[in-house]
Write a structure and sequence with these properties.
about 400 residues, homodimer, seven-stranded mixed beta sheet, Aspartate Aminotransferase, domain 2, PyrdxlP-dep_Trfase_small (chains A, B), globular, alpha/beta, Aspartate Aminotransferase, domain 1, four-stranded antiparallel beta sheet
């Protein structure tokens, strides 16, 4: 079992900061700077083009995919890393749709991350006017799973509220009517135990810059269930997903299994940072992490609710229905979050009124929760958010 | 004018190596390691999520795009960086096709990089059975530009032979019949002067890890001509191409102009390396670079042809029809290239029989050409390639 008081020392966090935003961008692991420097100086600098073989760059997307696979219940050889999450959503959804050519409806919910819905919109618009993206409220998803549905495309953990779907139940229901599933694990991988095989998920995608701590703009990953791996047709049929990329054939032949979900040249420097981040994850027991995360978030909710009647819990109260974040609603949430950040408690704000706080046991302990609650109480009880400097909006929030 | 004897000192090349493979992966600029380290340690490490604003990460794709734009004749505000070249090809081709909804044929040539053809295949396969990818020989392209053609999609400089298309003439011909053009500048950007505005190109894409020296897996770029910028519909409609990404609206609204060609979260660490690489390019006069490149490649051809009758020039003899690489055909080209690499002359091999050598005046001078010719002559005249260790093929070549 992981000792979560020891893992904190593996991260380079600024002194005095309570960083509750690892659900948006994970902090820098201490080993990453050296690892990246070696990739740049010793590998790229010294091996040049030879790095693709000698430093194993070309093998990284699959090797790193396997390491992520362990965290999400995927068998080795069924996850590959690359591109961005939006691209991977597009790729998974297109492959799923091609496996259900007689159906035209993609079902999603309004709690999905907007980019997933946008990518679906772009894809369906290109496929033709008979395709439809049907977006319902999260609580209405089950009622809308009918035999019209080609693909059920959901983000497991809601990016605003932390509300978690029941992946196994919804997937089973989708399969009953002959639909396939695409699960976005952006707020699940490294946050909660995921069992893709156990849940019979068909496709899954996720990112590595949040809970996995691989750095800003770190690449995404994609999973295709073993039974679909040789059937899924890649719409983004790039050369590195070809059966023989370096034969430079004129026509596309899909590579074996998950390899076909590779597309262009992998981002070697970002992959190096991902490798360093996964060194920590390789040691983590996800059940222990989940237990620690629930302890932290339960204490946080109790503390905030006791001290701040103006904040309304936006997350499910039952921890079993929550990911690893806690959100509160407050009309002046943007300003309140700025006031908190100015006092060293970093969460973030999501329109229109959500204050988000991520709980990441690898580097957040109970003393951080205590301190965060004290500062939130001070900001709320003394209306410290009610200052013009906190109300001016930055470009990126 | 750039002093190309001085620019060499800006690169960190292994002692004694003649690196003629900058057309595949550019070498490490000396300033890059520190730049990347600062992005990792001071920006990500200290600013955490705040880096998106404070370190200007979010603005980098457009800012770096403008700097690339200067090298390819694009006005400011019309180039953006992100994803991989394969993804950008897909994006440009899809946008061009949507602007010619009554036509179904994409014309390309067998000199195009295979991934461009593969991506077109994936896209057209999804759009429907009435779409056709028509691939002809490079010399036959002009004769096939008819009013059936929706989009002419070409790589300006052939990755194997270095043969260069006449972008302005082919674009003009395409426009005469109402077709649009997508130009891949993978072997043009930083290799030869490119004038996208002067050539009236409609769309262009390219990569930054070859001549631009941004590192393994560095991101790609895309250009949309000003007159199309507000009309082009992004099929890869990701959140960062949305008009208001942080409003988290449920439906997609395309951002202004080139901004809509952004998709997912940008690879911040790779962008940092690209920034360091472009610091060098910001000072380069492309006409002077072109003149220097021709001097080098002419001397190389003369030297090799005089000493190695077994090597047949695969590149156009007229330097005006050549990019910044020279290729020779040789049946045992793979083994010969391994023998050269073992002796410190690094070019590369492209199936079935092409030995490629890139000429990059930023860090390659006439003394490198002389030395390369001597070593090639030794390998060829003494049949040094005829050894088992040079014939065993590596996974990536």
């Amino acid at each position: 079992m992981t000792d979560f008081t020891a893992t904190r020392a593996l991260f380079d966090l600024p002194e005095g900061l309570v960083y509750l935003d690892g659900n948006s961008l994970g902090p820098l692991p201490r080993a990453t700077a050296d690892r990246v420097a070696r990739t740049v100086t010793e590998e790229w600098g010294q091996m040049l083009i030879g790095g693709w073989n000698k430093a194993g760059w070309m093998a990284q997307p699959a090797a790193l995919g396997d390491r992520i696979g362990r965290l999400i219940g995927a068998p080795a050889g069924h996850v590959v890393v690359g591109d961005t999450l939006s691209i991977k959503v597009f790729q998974a959804l297109a492959a799923a749709l091609q496996m259900r050519p007689d159906r035209k409806v993609v079902l999603s919910d309004s709690g999905n991350f907007p980019s997933d819905l946008y990518m679906a919109e772009g894809l369906l618009g290109a496929l033709g006017p008979d395709y439809e993206l049907r977006v319902v409220a999260p609580e209405d998803v089950a009622a809308h799973i009918t035999d019209e549905i080609a693909v059920l495309m959901l983000t497991e953990v809601d990016y605003r509220t932390g509300r978690m779907h029941d992946m196994a139940a919804l997937t089973a229901q989708a399969h009953t009517v002959g639909a396939l599933t695409v699960w976005d694990l952006a707020h699940s991988a490294g946050a909660v135990p995921v069992d893709l095989i156990g849940a019979h998920a068909d496709f899954a995608v996720g990112c590595t810059y949040k809970y996995l701590n691989a750095g800003p703009g770190a690449p995404a990953f994609i999973y295709v269930a073993p039974q679909h791996a040789e059937m899924a047709r890649p719409i983004l049929s790039g050369w590195l997903g070809h059966a023989a990329p370096f034969a430079f054939e004129q026509a596309y032949r899909a590579g074996e299994g998950i390899a076909r979900m590779r597309c262009g040249t992998p981002p070697v420097i970002q992959l190096s940072a991902l490798g360093a981040a996964l060194d920590i994850w390789d040691t983590v027991d996800m059940s222990a992490l989940r237990a620690a995360s629930i302890d932290l978030s339960e204490a946080f909710i109790a503390g905030v609710e006791a001290a701040c009647p103006d904040l309304t819990l936006a997350s499910p109260r039952d921890p079993a229905q929550r990911g690893s974040q806690v959100s509160f609603r407050f009309d002046e949430g943007y300003a309140a979050m700025q006031a908190l950040i100015a006092r060293g408690v970093v969460g973030d704000f999501r329109a229109p009124d959500i204050m988000r706080f991520g709980f990441t046991p690898l580097y957040i302990g109970m003393e951080d929760v205590t301190r965060a609650v004290e500062i939130i109480a001070d900001v709320m009880q003394n209306r410290l958010w009610d200052r013009p400097e906190y109300k001016a909006r930055a470009a990126v929030t």
